[in-house]
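Hello,

I think I submitted the iron/sulfur cluster job twice by accident. Can you confirm which output corresponds to this input? Input:
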Amino acid sequence: MKQLKKAFILDVEPKQLYSVLKPLVCEEYRIKQIAEWLYVKKADSFEKFSNLPKDIRGNLESSFYLRSFQNVIKKESVLDGTVRYTFKTYDSHYVYAVYLPSESAKSVCISTQIGCPVSCNFCSSGKIKFLRNLSRGEILEQIIHIENDIKERISGVLFMGMGEPFLNYTNLTSAIESIISKKELNIGKRHITVSSVGIIPAIKNLANAMYGVRFALSLHATDDKQRKKIIPNNFDAKISDLLQACRYYLKKTNSRITVEYILIKGFNDTSSDAHRLARLMRTADLIGPAVQVNLIPYNRSDKNDYETPEQIAVLNFKKILKLNGITVNIREAKGLDIGAACGQLGYCAK
Ligand code: SF4
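Support: Only one job matched these inputs. Its output is below.
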């Protein structure tokens, strides 16, 4: 694998900046200034670190990269203003992020891995061979790049792009610390959502870490056999155990849980599925205002034979959940014309 010639400065955790930079910069207040340029002002060249002496800027330039992505391709949806970013990594692979503007929020959906080893068979990212985890810096750079590009503050982050975040737990949590830190990206913890197919120990670890971010479980099925068909590498987690882990997360963090459910025609969109999902959630004590089910009508792709459900089936599914006291929302597809909608990331960028 190609190595970077210099270190990538966003890979250095701010708490380690002092020890790493000490040979180049002696005074502690200078380190604070550097951290501010990196994470608050988000300068894109060391030259712009204007309150630092020229020799320090030169030392930084010769020892570190400030950015790691080599190239960025941008595509904007004419339908809804969603923007898909394709970043070329230093080792010539591609990762994707999506900017999702709305009246109330400016959110980004970002990636944590190149390819995805989970290989959900409804998902285009799952068709891309897993190559490596993204570093902490590469995760953060997606947000910083988009914020600089749109020239507005990002208010929410969804870890729902390419990759299974829990398989890159150390870099995920290191990035989360910088995202929620008031001295760094300063995005409210309740506006961060980590989405996962569910690795039970990792769900509990994230709960115990008490970041207070939101957790979304990609469930997509109502019995274990059905789930195995759609998520073959499901870490052998049983649905009942996954929902118990969600309950643990909810109790421990007092933060909202989302259950994501992709509706696929004739596969998991029947009334029986809806009733079974309601039963499972009741058994796990997951019915209440802090838990929401997001129904995601499948976005058709030429990579498999799955079909978009009929609208009547979607509305019927929603009605059954609602009658069972479940907070339920039909997620509107964003960025359909640019391959940026849920499950589409990964096949039309290059
Ligand atoms: S849905 Fe998520 S976990 Fe599944 S293949 Fe796609 S990126 Fe990976």
